Amino acid sequence: xxxxLKSLETEIIKCMKCGNCQAVCPxxxxxxxxxxxxxxxxxxxxxxxxxxxxxxxxxxxxFDLCLTCMACVANCPxxxxxxxxxxxxxxxxxxNRGMPIPQRVAMxxxxxxxxxxxxxxxxxxxxxxxxxxxxxGMSPRFPMGLDLKRVxxxxxxxxxxxxxxxxxxxxxxVMRVAFFAGCVTNYVFPGVxxxxxxxxxxxxxxxxxxxxxxxxxxxxxIHGARDTxxxxxxxxxxxxxxxxxxxxxxxxxxxxxxxxxxxxxxxAENPDYARNAGKLAGCTYDIxxxxxxxxxxxxxxxGPVKTSFTYHEPCHVGRGLEAAGxxxxxxxxxxxxxxxxxxxxxxxxxxxxxxxxxxxxxxxxVLDRKLDDIAGTGAETxxxxxxxxxxxLNDGLARRKMPQRVVHTVEILAxxxxxxxx
Length: 422
Prior knowledge:
By secondary structure, the chain is of the alpha/beta class. The protein contains 22 helices and eleven strands. The protein has helices spanning 3-6, 9-13, 26-31, 38-49, 57-64, 71-75, 82-97, 101-111, 113-130, 183-187, 190-202, 218-222, 226-242, 253-266, 271-281, 287-294, 315-318, 326-332, 355-358, 360-377, 387-399, 409-418, and strands at 131-134, 137-140, 167-168, 175-180, 205-208, 247-250, 284-286, 308-312, 338-339, 381-384, 405-408. Strands 3-5-4-6-7 form a five-stranded mixed β-sheet. Strands 9-8-10-11 form a four-stranded parallel β-sheet, with helices on both faces. α5 (57-64) runs antiparallel to α7, α11 packs across α22 and α14 (253-266) runs antiparallel to α15. The longest helix has 18 residues, at 113-130. It is globular and about 65 Å long. The chain starts with a helix and ends with a helix.
């Protein structure tokens, strides 16, 4: 019996099998499968605890079919933390069955910073051979585990670590923040990190960018490699504790969740690490939270942008960090903003990190509903607060030949401040 799953027995018992989760689960809408919805997964977890179900390949597949979007958690009348149950079940399956070779290779790369850095540089050098480039990104030339229709952004010529100094000083700083960029920002969208530094500099904030930082560990954790995730968490806690900043700022909800929620839980058994992880958790903010709750956005710095835009709320910003609506409020502060709200800004786009790579067709079905909403707004630009969502949205827009471009919240704010439009 996995201790991680057994520890959630009380959480599992809380489920009263009402089925409210069916109404909000993105995967259930597409599959109509009870095993895809939260209630079904809770029942499977209970069956494992009762010894009625083995750690089989079929069980692993059932728990793999989850976006961890937390829509079920947000709408559960009993407050069942289905996300924690799913992660515990995946950890139990990994303990008992091991991890498939492709995932093991990927997790090894993510957990070794030097190897990941070399690997991404190698991809950058070979992407012209492996992918054909188009106006909206690049698509695979050969079958190599990716759908040939898929459109992906190229790896940046220079990573954020190669562009942004470790210390970005300002005159008479009002605050000092440590910036955690995350893998997608560092290797694919470094402009997001540069925009964050620019926006915060204009607000008198000194930005420290620890170069030793690495993957937050969430992809490793959600694939069940809990012990490796603990090691990565401990490393990040050391790095960002030494930074000596007043706060940690992120540009990805998943990374923010790692600092605020996962690290204290993973390191709870070590008193020293638990204390430092708790301190970091208490001062970690998504950039939208920072510019709303800590250093209010200076609206006098804003100018018009030459585009109409709408906003997609990432699940792990809106529900994971409980920061729903904060980015929208910032965007509406832009003078003469031509802002058109989505019917459901927080509806999952189906990306969920690696989920869209492992289940591309199902992920695309979820995305199609979001694309219909975007098309209905008539907006020229889609703004979001997550690099993974950005990749997913851009792929769908390219696939359907829709004209919208996707940018990060902090990028459009930076453009508003510099008068460069959008």
